[in-house]
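This is your field. Have a critical look at the following sequence-structure pair:

***
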Amino acid sequence: MRKPSIHPAPAMTRHGTALPDHRAPGSGGSYAVRRSKRIFAVGWCLLVALSVTASVAEARRSGPARTQRIDMVVIHSTGGPTCDARTGKPVWIDAGNLGDNIRIIEAHPTLGIHYMIDRDGTLRASVPEDQLAHHASGVNGRSVAIELINDGDGRDPFPDAQLESLVKLLRDITQRRGITHDGIRRHSDVDRRRLSCDRTQRRKVDPGSAYPHEAILDRVFRGGDFRAR
């Protein structure tokens, strides 16, 4: 989610999680090669997040009261492009793990999410749905945020267990909130801004082309099977 440079440290997620690698958006190379690289991309808000050492009991799990009706769910991935504060060039932030992502974002003074789903289907709730979480510019007031642990690069697969958990959660939210098919949006659908360090590239492309969006919608609203993709 978003970023002066610091001394070299392990690569970070967009929420400040230490990770094994990054790659520049659009660069070549195999997935294995990308897993071996180290790059140091950190921005101001991530630096703030890393400086906060809140315990679980102190973590921020609340937001301001909503003033709009919820009519949208936005699907995110924890990985995605950003600008490297050290080099001023675009880089790709990898997914990280559920525990670190939750800890960092709940310690952040501004950003928030409602749910996060791990690769094995583990679901964690954060900010209550009835409260606003800052996760997607322009639609925060009307939407619920779901983060999926994934690189968001179109190559990192979404395991069936993770998608099953997502379908179950989406069915619950849409039924309770009366949200329609068109109300389930990807982050890339609602934020079409460009990277400040490279205006040819999108800031938000998550959850990426590997995410089976239409199959998920079919499963949520019509009982289809995303595993047939």
